[in-house]
């Protein structure tokens, strides 16, 4: 696995695929710059070596050239975070871009326009990838968030850099964190899966049953397991067509010696709204007209004990409807438990969509070992897939 340290970038132009797909508000201001901050170590190392950086990224899912998706909106933020002047070109291929890249001096940074303004990017077009490849001497992939896409700039371009391609430090760190959970982590290894649906996590569950000692199934997806075992779940969300599968997962877990922990109680609400009436009830005795929306106190304690006994922890998916203040407590308490366990020496990885949002919203970002910068990319990694962006560097 080639990393930045395998190269000296002196007088070299690094063509770096970053994931600067960051959220913007209606004034086109960056509202969460995590992905830009996370790319800084790679860029700094290359500049310190005496090289220059050509940064390429997508932003959103534009249909052709659309001003609102221009990377010009984020150029100043990138400059601010890197602390180095950033040159910006209004295209990502073509004569102007080639001239700008050719005249780049050591220590300088060039930011290209949104790659997805060309449909060839997402189509993985070889000709488009070849044009990009002309811009740099060494290809660095640091875009973990987009590593599950076999696009021109994330995957196809790598074939033009035989022996001259490597992982950036962010991508290497993401790979390492996943490896810690899936392969090398200190036991006991715990995975906590929450969120809304069993169906979106099936492949992950089946893949990690071979890797973990404990599995907490929380959030909305727990109710499919509870109902499948004969529990009364009222109006709680449930995927009836996945009940058989839930029973099969419980059976597989037993065979594989994995201890599964399902909530024993829940906060039930009489309406799916923040000001609904609520009551604590046993998970398998939810009255008609009520639905489970958050972990109950006994479950929080149970999960706390499992988390504190674990040395390696993966967390994906909230334990309740955390977007509503009234039902955020279980997710916050789980965050507190993971923070405490991390302080005691456990390795904790948080990844995938809403759990990362929850971790940031409730201030746990610096209290866990690692927060992934990838949503879909992290979920696909946990499913056991080799991401095309990663495979292309290894080839
Ligand atoms: N008991 C519940 N009932 C309904 N929705 C829930 C419940 N618990 C969690 N959720 C919802 O699950 C969603 C996140 O699910 P999911 O997308 O699978 O997680 P992630 O994005 O972290 O992988 C959140 O919007 C949250 O409100
Ligand atoms: O933000 C991203 O994905 P994510 O929301 O799954 O983390 C990546 O930049 C990939 O974007 P895409 O899903 O439009 O290919």
UniProtKB/TrEMBL annotation:
Q: Which InterPro entries match?
A: Phosphoglycerate_kinase, Phosphoglycerate_kinase_N, Phosphoglycerate_kinase_sf
Q: Which Pfam families match?
A: PGK (PF00162)
Catalytic activity annotation:
(2R)-3-phosphoglycerate + ATP = (2R)-3-phospho-glyceroyl phosphate + ADP
Q: Which residues bind (2R)-3-phosphoglycerate?
A: 35, 116, 149
Keyword check for Transport, yes or no. no
Annotated EC: 2.7.2.3
The record's GO molecular-function terms, alphabetically, read:
ADP binding; ATP binding; phosphoglycerate kinase activity
Q: What class of enzyme is it?
A: transferase
Residues that hold substrate according to the record: 19-21, 35, 58-61, 116, 149
Protein family per UniProt: Belongs to the phosphoglycerate kinase family.
The record's annotation in HAMAP family points to:
Phosphoglyc_kinase
The protein in question is named Phosphoglycerate kinase
């Amino acid at each position: 696995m080639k990393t930045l340290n395998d190269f000296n970038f002196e007088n070299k132009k690094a063509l770096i695929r970053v994931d600067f797909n960051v959220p913007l508000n209606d004034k086109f201001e960056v509202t969460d710059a995590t992905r830009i901050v996370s790319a800084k170590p790679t860029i700094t190392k290359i500049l310190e070596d005496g090289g220059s950086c050509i940064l390429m990224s997508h932003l959103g899912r534009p249909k052709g050239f659309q001003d609102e998706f221009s990377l010009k909106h984020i150029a100043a933020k990138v400059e601010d975070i890197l602390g180095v002047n950033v040159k910006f070109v209004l295209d990502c291929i073509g004569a102007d871009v080639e001239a700008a890249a050719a005249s780049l001096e050591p220590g300088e940074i060039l930011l290209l326009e949104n790659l997805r303004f060309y449909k060839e990017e997402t189509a993985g077009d070889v000709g488009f990838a070849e044009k990009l490849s002309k811009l740099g001497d060494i290809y660095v992939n640091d875009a973990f968030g987009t590593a599950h896409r076999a696009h021109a700039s994330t995957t196809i371009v790598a074939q033009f850099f035989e022996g001259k391609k490597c992982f950036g430090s962010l991508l290497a760190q993401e790979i390492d964190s996943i490896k810690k959970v899936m392969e090398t982590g200190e036991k006991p290894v715990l995975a906590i899966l929450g969120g809304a649906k069993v169906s979106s996590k099936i492949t992950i569950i089946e893949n990690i049953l071979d890797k973990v000692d404990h599995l907490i199934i929380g959030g909305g997806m727990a109710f499919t397991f509870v109902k499948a075992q004969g529990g009364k779940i009222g109006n709680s969300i449930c995927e009836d067509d996945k009940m058989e599968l839930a029973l099969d997962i419980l059976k597989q877990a037993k065979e594989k010696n994995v201890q599964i922990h399902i909530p024993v109680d829940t906060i039930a609400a009489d309406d799916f709204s923040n000001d609904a009436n609520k009551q604590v009830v046993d998970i398998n005795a939810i009255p008609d007209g009520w639905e489970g929306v958050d972990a109950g106190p006994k479950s929080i304690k149970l999960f706390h004990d499992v988390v504190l006994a674990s040395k390696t922890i993966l967390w994906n998916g909230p334990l309740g409807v955390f977007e509503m203040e009234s039902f955020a407590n279980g997710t916050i308490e789980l965050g507190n438990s993971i923070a405490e366990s991390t302080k005691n020496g456990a390795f904790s990885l948080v990844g995938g969509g809403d759990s990362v949002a929850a971790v940031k919203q409730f201030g746990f970002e610096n209290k866990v070992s690692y927060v992934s910068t990838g949503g879909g990319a992290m979920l696909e990694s946990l499913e056991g897939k080799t991401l095309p962006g990663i495979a292309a560097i290894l080839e």
